[in-house]
Specification:
Order of helices and strands: EEEEEEEEEEEEEEEEEE
Shape: elongated
Structural class: mainly beta
Number of domains: 2
CATH architecture of the largest domain: Sandwich
CATH class of the largest domain: Mainly Beta
Largest sheet: 5 strands, mixed
Length: 235
């Protein structure tokens, strides 16, 4: 999903830069002067976003380019994000955050982009894959839900908005996939090609029945159905 963003203007970054201030006039400790701080290799924890659909922009910048953010540790102002080993112009947001524009040709078709960070001293981070999903694919397949049942009138995995979160595991999910509870589409969060979560409003948990859970991909293909018993519970 494309979003307007100013993520490359890192002076507005949500990442905080921690600064140690030495108070004027403070005396040195008895231990004497400390040795040089150990320089650690950069490390990537996650990407934002972690995926897109082939040919579809994401975090679109005023320039029209799509940007990815890299969250991790041990970054410096000279760190560079690399896509498939090729360095990109990188914006520094602190030692835990970087961002860079992704060349459109890299996400024009399905596949994976290897994302790494290299520091000025030549140290290279772990590689994290940015997934480019196809526009269309095989039908989604469901293997389980969690929870696999519920009691009416009682929430489960209750979220701050009061809704209940239903997790779905399977395969062949595409960005934009929707979970359906019977015929009702749920607000759905994409967790990758094998996981989704949907928000179930309390209004759908009032009558005992065995509901059917399905997933529908944006290409119109629908999964198998799983039973979701909704019991009245003990009296």
């Amino acid at each position: 999903m494309a979003h307007d963003s100013t993520i490359l203007k890192m002076n507005r970054s949500p990442w905080a830069v921690l600064m140690l201030t030495v108070l004027a006039g403070a005396s040195l400790s008895c231990g004497g002067r400390q040795g040089p701080k150990e320089v650690l290799a950069p490390r990537i924890e996650k990407l934002a976003p972690p995926s897109t659909t082939a040919g579809k922009g994401f975090q679109v910048q005023p320039s029209g380019e799509s940007a990815v953010s890299v969250i991790g540790s041990n970054f410096t102002s000279a760190s560079q994000i690399c896509f498939n080993g090729k360095p990109a112009v990188t914006a520094f947001g602190g030692d835990t955050g970087l961002s860079a524009a992704v060349p459109a040709e890299l996400y024009s078709r399905e596949g994976t982009i290897a994302v790494t960070v290299v520091n000025a001293d030549g140290r290279i981070s772990n590689a994290v894959s940015f997934q480019v999903f196809p526009v269309a694919g095989p039908p989604p397949q469901l293997s389980r839900t969690w929870p696999d049942s519920c009691v009416i009138g009682r929430g489960f995995n209750v979220q701050p908005n009061g809704g209940s979160a239903l997790g779905v595991a399977g395969s062949n999910f595409l960005p934009g996939a929707r979970i359906y509870l019977d015929e009702t589409p749920l607000e759905t969060a994409f967790g990758g090609g094998t996981a989704l979560s949907g928000m179930v409003p309390a209004s759908l948990l009032r009558a005992p029945r065995t509901a059917k859970i399905r997933v529908k991909n944006p290409d119109g293909k629908t999964s198998n159905a799983l039973d979701f018993p909704m019991s009245a519970g003990p009296r």
